[in-house]
User: What shape does this take?
Amino acid sequence: MPRLAITRLQLSHLRSHKSALIEGDGRPVAIYGPNGAGKTNILEALSLLSPGRGLRRATGEDLARAPERIGWKIRATLEAPDRTHQIETGADAPDAPRFLTIDDKPAPQFALGRIARVIWLIPSMDRLWLDTASERRRFLDRITLSLEPGHGETVLAYEKAMRERNRLLKDQVRDPAWYAGLEAQMAQAGARITRNRAEALDRLMAAQTGAATSFPRANLALVGPEDSAPEPDEDRLRAALGSQRPRDMAAGRTLSGPHRDDLTAIYAAKDMPARHCSTGEQKALLISVILANARALAEDIGAAPIILLDEVAAHLDPERRRALYDEVCALGAQAWMTGTDAALFTPLQDRALWLHVTGSAEGVSTVETVDPAPA
Assistant: This one.
């Protein structure tokens, strides 16, 4: 079966990992150890093999290991369906720009989205359905980026033009000629953003329908401010931006567009908004969406994405925990999962690679490959 997997991961001076080498074989990876040992740091390193700032959205200064502060580096061997890639990324100093090479050639970050599909679920996302619209947009855009690697460039183009327009609004510039070009750029990119997001949601809904899963189905929708419909038409979006200049000038910022859209979710079986569900139900809905994302990607590229699941097992009952592992294995996904107790991963047995992570008084993490926990 074609697969997407990290078969070698080397960390140098990344947070608590002064030096670490992990060799995988494509199976899921069960990572256990005490709190603060450095388990999540491994997942963060893997998330940096995709476009963006990783699962913690950290700065270079945050990533560089103290007290040396000499920079950080990640080297990885990625086994993809078409070929094997060598990826290296890092920074030569905490305040230095991040570099990236793919197969020993310098590359822009968006190139990672075309070879490495990485998705994740971390504890800070547990309150997603109760959090701000901006957090849900970020969540949806990560999913959209995984399905459409060019989405990130489109978002950057929109945000750049919007910043310039906002500057004109704050400066009370009234000459329409100053706005026309920027609004045309915003409309072109903004309409594409809306279409990309809508297509991603359609893919997620389809991937949930008919799937054999123990996790609840979520009805997902994209809405604009005050529950208006997002505008996917470039001409109408450009006209709207022009007509709303007086209102936006009074506010000093752009008040409508894809940067104000929101993601809503309904627990389908109960016809209940996710924000009104119990904590356990909200978590189950999140897992359902992540698994749907993985299924949709598997259809697209012929292999499941790399999935990062931080402390996910501790919040599931034994039945759902077993169901999650079974679904990951059925997908053929290399899921990297963390937990404090090896017993959380017992149902995996030899279906997974087991890593034990420990820390030291000096704050240095150690990673050891071990035998599966006994059933």
Notes: The CA atoms of residues 129 and 275 lie 5 Å apart. DSSP finds nine helices and 15 strands in the chain. The first helix runs from residue 39 to 47.
